[in-house]
Amino acid sequence: MERRGVLKLVGGAAGAAVFGASTMGNEAEEPPRPERTDEESPPEPSRNEKGEERLRRGEVGHELVGVGAHDLLANDELGELLSRLERESDGAVSVEVVGESNEGREIHSARVGEGDVDVLAIAEQHGHEPFQAEGHVAALGYLGTADRSDVRELRRRITLHAIPRVNPDGFAARQRVNHAPDAPENDPEAGLHTREGGWDPNRYHRYDWEESTLYRNRPEEYPENPVPESRYVVELAKEIDPEWVLDCHRQGPHVDSNGDLIDASIGWPQNPDVPADAQKRSQQLATVLYDRLPEVEECHLTEFTAAGEYPGIARNAHALAGHGSVLFEMSTGTRGGIGYRIQLTAEALLVAALATADGSLHDADPSRVEEIPAEWGTTVNL
Ligand SMILES: [Zn+2]
User: What pLDDT digit, counting tens, does each position of 204-223 carry?
Assistant: First the structure.
């Protein structure tokens, strides 16, 4: 099976799980949901020829643990696939270039729906955290092409914006940070969040740059936000004023105190200056994900307890600007393989979008975040 066919299948399976396999009196028949997406996928060799070739050419820095290079959408493939989605959805999905990375790679945003309520999902700020972009594409593909009245209704009510791969340079280099070899040494006190090779995009989501720690410390050196990837996200958020921002990452393999795998962890704003309504919306969204995701996919979710108060981190920054803001951290070690991870990310997006469109997000009890196990677990060394 062609890989893009696999992604399409994942999108359909994720959608069938969230929206239901029945057609709700509709014309279209959903394909039966596979028992588990992985079993529908072709056997996955650790590397295929293409991956081998790219490794030889040095286009892929190193193979990720347990993941063959062939399992990922390369940057150019991601762009091509989004364009194809735009064509095949008859315009239901539209794609734009929001900006260029330091190495000149295009950073894409995609939009589906034409409702008055805007929401924003972003992924892969950290370049070495794969399968989030693939999950976004699967969700966009489902929402853009499913011939169902409830999906059409969703498209009438909300507009979902997504930046599936915020940091394509980091992806190419298989590194957390963006590409900025001249970035100064890490000095968080001064507002410098760097690692060798670049800046950490998830520390620079400042709506007012002059309030940032870095500007306050070094206004002449940094009159503007030096991290383009973060600027593009903030610019889009300012433009669309989203009800919420869902920030998708990949954490390590985690096991809780009972020995159960943690498939994903959910975080919400921790900064004490977040306005009450933004915190409420964030916690409502966290609650919805915690309640609904296990209904559509076997998974064990916990709280991302490592969250801090730093105002430049996406989950704090977007909430400080008045939006709901939630972190979704897929684990490296999950009960299913790659297909499962892509599907769970897609389902998280679909669950959030559906709850926003049908209004159930607003009925969720934000205090129920207390019920999410406050356990990030132990990282397992692989
Ligand atoms: Zn991350």
Answer: 999 999 999 999 999 999 99
